[in-house]
Amino acid sequence: NKKIILKSRPVGEPKESDFALVETPTPEPGEGEILSRTIYLSLDPYMRGRISEGESYAASVELGSVIVGGTVSQVIKSNHPQFQVGDFVLSNNGWQTYAVSKGETLRKLDPTQAPLSYSLGVLGMPGLTAYAALLDIGQPKEGETVVVSAASGAVGAVVGQIAKIKGAARVVGIVGSDDKRDYIVKELGFDVGINRKTQELNSALKEAAPNGIDVYYDNTAGVILEAVLQQINLGARIPLVGLISEYNATSTPSGPNLMPLLIKRALIKGFLVGDYQHRFNDFLGDVSGWLQSGKLKYKEDVVVGLENAPDAFIGLLRGDNFGKLIIKVNED
Ligand code: NDP
């Protein structure tokens, strides 16, 4: 059995010397287990998180252990009633040529339905990522503009095409080369491609999305997110799916760290009180009642005299006020 193990934790961009190829005897399946031979191994950006220490969305790979990974494999020995020798299965053999499994997480694949490797991509985890985050969070509507980063990749290519299928008027993909840009426009039907390495993002986005951006499917975060935010429309939706621009970072990127938002599936949503006038009667009823019953306390900081307003205002921005700042202009 050939395996690739994690030799050292990469600092910045992973190096070949962080990995080692080792050979061990092929394992034997025990009672209720199967042995499978790996045919395809999926390599995915999340693995960068797995080989680092610290919080990602799953546990780290231990030093000396086989690197994790989704695989398509073929059963070559079986002590499991549900799997026969010759079956193809979606498995998690990781970076190795053979693995033993109890079968719990295996899914049988039918090679006549689609090429086996598709279950690691468009018909598997990356495809579901594209489909679910776009449709459930992005919710593109007919006529809207959708932008996606890492647009020629496993996730992004599917995102852009589903957006088109769902009637988006304009689909813009951000990629890292001219070949990728040609591919997403000419082969995949994106309306515009932007090469993030050679084009100035702000002006390229303005030209590509003249009506603003309704959905930004974010695979990268970083400078692309920063540029996109300048051009989002009222009520835009932004599925935060990946932060690949930061996976190799050796120091904390400037600005807020968005990773906890992804890991905790947190919601940030812009708010303007003017949109909530329909809640005024509910609000007034509830809050008046809580004030009267003493459940809600309220403190005012009253400054007497209109002439003191400038000073009080300057203080408000410094934190001198203690409670709701009010100027008492005249006796009531
Ligand atoms: P891709 O096939 O898209 O490959 C990664 C691509 O990321 C590269 O080809 C490159 O494209 C782009 N990229 C790399 N570095 C940078 C950078 N510094 N700035 C901008 N773009 C960069 O991978 P996947 O489709 O598998 O994954 C895409 C994203 O989706 C990743 O962030 C991944 O972590 C995330 N993901 C999240 C999941 C979730 O459950 N939240 C599940 C699956 C994926 P280019 O050079 O063309 O820009």
TrEMBL record:
Every Enoyl reductase (ER) domain range: 15-327
Pfam family for this entry, one: ADH_N_2
GO molecular function terms listed in the Swiss-Prot or TrEMBL record: oxidoreductase activity, acting on the CH-CH group of donors, NAD or NADP as acceptor
Keyword vocabulary terms for this entry: Oxidoreductase
Domain of life of the native organism: Bacteria
UniProt xrefs under InterPro entries: ADH-like_C, ADH_N_2, ER, GroES-like_sf, MDR_fam, NAD(P)-bd_dom_sf
Name this polypeptide is given: Enoyl reductase (ER) domain-containing protein
Native source organism of the sequence: Nostoc sphaeroides CCNUC1
Lineage: Bacteria, Bacillati, Cyanobacteriota, Cyanophyceae, Nostocales
